[in-house]
Amino acid sequence: MIPVTKPYLPNRDKLKAYIDGIYDRQWLSNNGQLVQELTQRLEAYLGVENLLLVSNGTLALQIAYRALGVSDTDRNQKPEAITTPFTFVATASSLKWEGVQPVFADIDPNTWCLAPDNIEAAITPNTRAIVPVHVFGNACDVEAIDEIAQKHNLKVIYDAAHAFGVTYKGESLLKHGDAATLSFHATKLFHTGEGGAIIFKRKEDLERAKKMINFGITGPESIEELGINAKMNEIQAAMGLCVLDEMEENLQAREQVWQRYQQALPANLQLQARHEALGYNYAYFPVVFESEEQTVRVAATLKENGVLARRYFYPSLESVECLDAQAAQPVSKDIASRILCLPIYADLSADSQNIIMEIMKEVING
Ligand SMILES: *Cc1c(COP(=O)(O)O)cnc(C)c1O
């Protein structure tokens, strides 16, 4: 069976050495040595400041909303945030969970990121934030979004779960927005088993979030505000440090897999139009087929041959009932109905890729 993705497992002996250190120190959580080390190394690797490690990428979003005053903490404000329907459900469900109504705006048909004009059209007096997604690691139109946010006094929180290591105009893409969040789930490019991070623009927001992720506790006998538990632990950090050590090899192998697809793909497939100033991370290989019927047929034939290509992102989130969407999102709905993500991971063999592409060609042409 060829899965759509495989967790990257770093050198086992190295992980054991980190675990030995954890046993020696007998310190397992609460901002331990390895969490501090990973924080520093990630800030240096990504070229960012004000990075806060948390226990997963969904809590990263929720803490970012809270720290930036987007959440409905008064329970009667009915705030809204404008976001994309073409993403993993957590982008929108995390808003709803925080009492914020996700208001969907449609995506650009080529980049598959939120279209700035549609954002502006969706603004109401209740809008507090824009939550765009750098989907599949592509850069949103960050300049236009910044302008809209300034004009209407809105917070911007980028769900950058796919954008680990991505650069835009030579700098980290994660520097854009009041905050950008990462997921370090096992299936992501860089991972800690489960985990995540928030990169804040301002230090004071980072400091507020630091208190929030530890119950609002600020000292042995002081609880300053309402908090929750969203701390990363030492075992997670140990895994992260090991994966980070092997990032270059991992990226090179993925790029090779990515290029092999790019060079031998059947004709007439639509690929994501990436910004030309983007330094990409080769995390995903999404392709869009001619019709939903063809998409379903390709996915089924691949599955019969032991290959799992996922319909991702499908369905478009305005159709998910518990999110209470108000309006149709025709572009997102259309792309979602015709997209498959092809298997991509560091040790995917050229032979496996050739089989995948042969099957696709047979279905498309036959
Ligand atoms: C993975 C992912 C998340 C959720 O992250 P978890 O670490 O699994 O909680 C959120 N948004 C997007 C776009 C994702 O791909």
Automatic annotation (TrEMBL):
Keywords, sorted A to Z: Aminotransferase, Pyridoxal phosphate, Transferase
Modified residues (N6-(pyridoxal phosphate)lysine): K188
Top-rank lineage group of the source organism: Bacteria
Catalytic residues as annotated in Swiss-Prot or TrEMBL: K188 (proton acceptor)
This protein's record includes keyword Transferase: yes
Gene3D superfamilies registered for this protein in UniProt: Type I PLP-dependent aspartate aminotransferase-like (Major domain)
A biological process term (GO) from this entry: polysaccharide biosynthetic process
Signal peptide feature range: none
Gene Ontology MF terms: pyridoxal phosphate binding; transaminase activity
A Pfam family recorded for this sequence: DegT_DnrJ_EryC1
Family: Belongs to the DegT/DnrJ/EryC1 family.
PANTHER family in UniProt: PROTEIN RV3402C, TRANSAMINASE
Name this protein carries in UniProt: Aminotransferase DegT
